[in-house]
Amino acid sequence: MATAVSGLDKLADNIAKLSQRRATGTLILSSEAQYEGQLHLFYGRLLYAIGRSHRVRCWDRTLKQSCPNWKVTLDSEPEEEPWEYQLLHLGVARERLSVSEAKAAIRNSAREVFFSLALSPNLTCRWDCRAEASSTMTLTLPLSAVEVEQVIQEARELWQQWLTLGFGKISPNLAPTLKEDAAEYFPRLQQVLTGEKTLWDLAVSLQQPIEGVARALLPFAKKGVVKFEHIPDVPTPFALVSQTKADVIKIQPPPQQIIACIDDSPTVGQFVEQVLTPFGYRVLKIQDPLRATTLLAKHKPSLIFLDLVMPNADGYSLCTFLRQSPAFRETPIIILTSRNSIIDRTRAKLAKASDFLTKPPEPEKLLQMVEKHLKICLV
Fold it and tell me: Which residues contact 44 (CB under 8 A, 6 or more apart)?
């Protein structure tokens, strides 16, 4: 028990450190030189957790638990890993999933992976840094360090119950089967224990907590009536391509959105461009405020960053003018300025600005501001 808990503690400690560094990449997990899984992180947040065993079974289970009404039909495989996150992101972008459903799926899969790691002695972690982020990565779906710690705690508690039941050496990834000579005496049990479902699978199909399923099987296991066997994973969803064109979802990122940055400083525009371009946004840099309305009308940006103090222009007046135009009445306008007094914020509200961001903004806060105001990332 001590080994398992210390392994989860080590995992939690690594995630906490990577979260503080806002690191992006993959935490590769192993035990006694054997691969155990990997955690994909984005700015220190958990995109998705993948275990060593039954990756697709885990995906199927988490969909049944978190978003049972979502039917995914595909005609191609996502080009980037983890493909599970790519599909969840696509579901949210296409408004077929809510953010809460997608996050629940990430939590459920992580809980299974963390529990399985409790069975792995001498857990070691290796960090593989990723220089560039995918255009599908957002800060909306991934789990924060606090959320991850909650999931790890759930895995700890489940592990304690598992040990109490005497199942310490039995993985939930094993399939319980009824011995042949006992089948005729337990017909109902034979119908349930077909040898095609793992303990995790049974818990989901029976809509019971896995510790409850294990507790029910315990007397039979002690008598040797039930045995536990390894079974293979199921095919990936990409191997089961539907030919029904009306239901096919093509794996592609959402349409590119334009973000305008109106600031006389070229440095600010370049900074916004450097932060947002890797995430699939196109930045329209406008240094001359007198040309702003013409360029905005031409390119129709999805969101506008607006400086307050510029030569020949007042940011408040420009914001008010844009709000009077039907084309920009609903467009998010974010005041981006080094002036951060209560008076400045009040004037921004009076000018009907959507939000206020102090210069120089941190890259993460800039990206969060964009995601906050673009509908693709909202519930």
Answer: 18, 19, 20, 21, 22, 23, 145
* pLDDT surpasses 70 at 241: no
Please give the single-letter amino acid code of residue 296: L
Strand partners, 252: none
- Chain centroid to Cα 122, Å, comes to 27
Q: What is the per-residue pLDDT for 232?
A: 94
What pLDDT score was predicted for residue 247? 42
Domains in the chain (CATH in brackets) are 4-165 (no CATH), 174-230 (no CATH), 258-374 (3.40.50.2300)
Q: Which two tokens stand for residue 283?
A: 């930045």
| pTM of full prediction above 0.70 | no
**Bond from prior residue into 332 cis (ω within 30 degrees of 0):** no
pLDDT tens readout for residues 128-145: 886 555 555 677 889 999
Helices in the chain by DSSP H: which ranges?
2-20, 55-66, 83-93, 99-118, 145-164, 187-192, 199-205, 210-222, 266-276, 292-299, 315-324, 342-350, 363-373
Residue 277 has φ and ψ, to the nearest 5°, of -60, -40
- CB of 86 closer than 8 Å to CB of 121: no
| Measured distance CA(186)–CA(303) in Å, rounded | 64
Q: What integer pLDDT is reported at residue 74 of this predicted model?
A: 66
The whole-number average pLDDT for the span 261-268 is 89
Could you tell me if 301 and 260 are in contact, meaning their C-beta atoms sit under 8 angstroms apart? Answer: yes
Which residue is it, tokens 């980037």?
80
Query: Does the pLDDT of residue 94 top 80, yes or no?
Result: yes
Handedness of CA 305, 307, 312, 314 (dihedral sign): positive
- Quick one: pLDDT at residue 147? 95
